[in-house]
Amino acid sequence: MDTRQKKSLGKLVGTVGELEHGKSKKFTLRRGQRDLEALLVNYEGNYFAYVNRCPHTGITLDWVNNQFFSSDNRYLMCATHGAVFEPPTGECVWGPCFGLALQNVPIQIDGEQIYASLPGANENE
Q1: Hey, is 27 helix, strand or coil?
Q2: Which domains does the chain have, with CATH numbers?
Q3: pTM score, two decimals?
Q4: For residues 26 and 52, what is the distance between their CA atoms, to the nearest angstrom?
């Protein structure tokens, strides 16, 4: 695949097999003049990505740097008010933002590489 095609996939944010089930990795995407922090998660062998912002208060979710999963690796959680999110959908299933959802970051897997993009984001940065 040539370079022009790879750029259209988005920003390289990880590789398949890099994260075990229940593990996560933060990355940033640039939209205009703003860097948006996001998270890539592996849930039961599937990869999902979301903007690292709670829909309740707009703050980051991490318990400590780069830890988003509950202790049993079943849910994503917000450290501030304990909101609980389904990893495959980002939907809040318990807590102050019940029924709302994390903002999805579209990902594409090309071979072993995982790319992420947001509409209006500059994937080159």
Answers
A1: strand
A2: 3-122 (2.102.10.10)
A3: 0.89
A4: 8
Quick one: CA torsion of 75, 72, 22, 26, rounded to 10 degrees? 60
Please give the single-letter amino acid code of residue 39.
Answer: L
Which amino acid type is present at position 93?
Answer: V
Torsion region of 66: left, alpha or beta (phi above 0 gives left; psi -120 to 50 gives alpha): left
In the chain, beta strands by DSSP E: 11-15, 23-31, 34-43, 46-51, 76-77, 84-85, 92-94, 107-110, 113-116, 121-122
* Tokens standing for residue 51: 């903007």
* Nearest by Cα to 103 from 66, 45, 70, 56: 56
pLDDT in tens, 5-47: 445 789 999 999 999 999 999 999 998 889 999 999 999 999 9
